[in-house]
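We were asked to recover a plausible sequence for a given structure. The inputs and outputs are reproduced exactly as logged, with field labels preserved.

PROBLEM: sequence recovery
POSITIONS: 333
GIVEN STRUCTURE:
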């Protein structure tokens, strides 16, 4: 009999986890991790911007917003062949999941055929596929599912009560609607957010509470803000102590995510290029088991394949085998 992870976490429960002595919290997180995932294995993922800049949303952290003065130039959707070439190179570098991101509020119907061709091509290489394209209608989610998309990324970004401080062009409820459309279509959900936005611990508690009380995302990316000059938050936080979240607090956030969402993949995403190896090692100890590799994440810098390979070798961590597993109903059969 399969026991489903609990989704009845209260804010008091999550507060108590954050308040645990650090060593006890990390020990508990690693215990939960080993009960649900292979030890000493990390999934390597690659993220490619298939359509950069010109997004009409006003996300305060994003260099691709039309509201940002970041120097990012808007581009058209990449050619399918170029995307598949990038995917093949990512696979050669050890990635098991290939994620494709487009700076849109939502995709246009004219773009759907190319997107579906990208999904099919990457899956034929034996890699997991993920896309993040903004908000999706029910019909668009079904089209992506029919093409074989494994995961759809749509982050909640922060706590519901802090959301309007970060974005004004859509609501937290808009985010939830797309997640519901994705899950109804049978696509695995990739949903997390960003810490280091200038939020309080109470906001981080609310962020984890929102994720852990919905049907748990199969993948939970935890980003540390990369302050970009020309963005609202980048200009606001670049010269303040809030620009870089305390590493111990970041590890605590990872650990609480692992404990409250035991079956999910917990991914270290943006911000790793400024983290020490020791911090990343503690994150793996706290239950993180996925990272983005390569030199760039959409428009932000990343650590690079060689540096990651050296770090993982030092820690005795091996790359997880790539196994595209398709839709939720397929996994249940």
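RECOVERED SEQUENCE:
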């Amino acid at each position: 009999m399969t026991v489903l992870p609990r989704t009845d976490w209260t804010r008091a429960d999550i507060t108590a986890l954050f308040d645990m002595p650090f060593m006890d919290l990390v020990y508990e997180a690693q215990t939960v991790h080993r009960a649900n995932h292979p030890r000493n294995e990390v999934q390597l993922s690659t993220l490619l911007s298939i359509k950069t800049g010109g997004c009409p949303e006003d996300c305060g952290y994003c260099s691709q917003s039309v509201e940002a003065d970041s120097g990012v130039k808007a581009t058209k959707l990449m050619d399918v062949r170029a995307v598949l070439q990038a995917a093949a190179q990512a696979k050669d570098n050890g990635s098991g999941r290939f994620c494709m991101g487009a700076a849109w509020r939502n995709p246009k119907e004219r773009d759907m055929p190319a997107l579906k061709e990208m999904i099919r091509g990457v899956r034929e290489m034996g890699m997991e596929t993920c896309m993040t394209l903004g908000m999706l209608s029910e019909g668009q989610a079904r089209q992506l599912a029919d093409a074989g998309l494994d995961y759809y990324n749509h982050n909640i970004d922060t706590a519901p009560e802090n959301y309007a401080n970060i974005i004004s062009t859509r609501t937290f409820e808009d985010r939830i609607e797309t997640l519901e459309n994705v899950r109804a279509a049978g696509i695995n959900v990739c949903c997390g957010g960003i810490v280091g936005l200038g939020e309080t611990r109470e906001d981080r508690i609310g962020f984890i509470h929102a994720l852990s009380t919905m049907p748990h995302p199969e993948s939970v990316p935890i980003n540390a803000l990369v302050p970009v000059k020309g963005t609202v938050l980048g200009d606001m936080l670049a010269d303040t102590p809030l620009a870089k979240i305390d590493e111990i607090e970041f590890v605590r956030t990872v650990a609480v995510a692992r404990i409250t969402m035991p079956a999910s993949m917990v991914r270290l995403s943006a911000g790793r290029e400024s983290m020490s190896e020791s911090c990343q090692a503690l994150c793996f100890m706290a239950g993180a088991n996925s990272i983005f590799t390569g030199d760039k994440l959409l428009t932000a810098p990343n650590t690079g394949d060689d540096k990651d390979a050296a770090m993982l070798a030092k820690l005795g961590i091996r790359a997880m085998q790539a196994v595209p597993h398709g839709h939720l109903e397929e996994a249940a059969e």
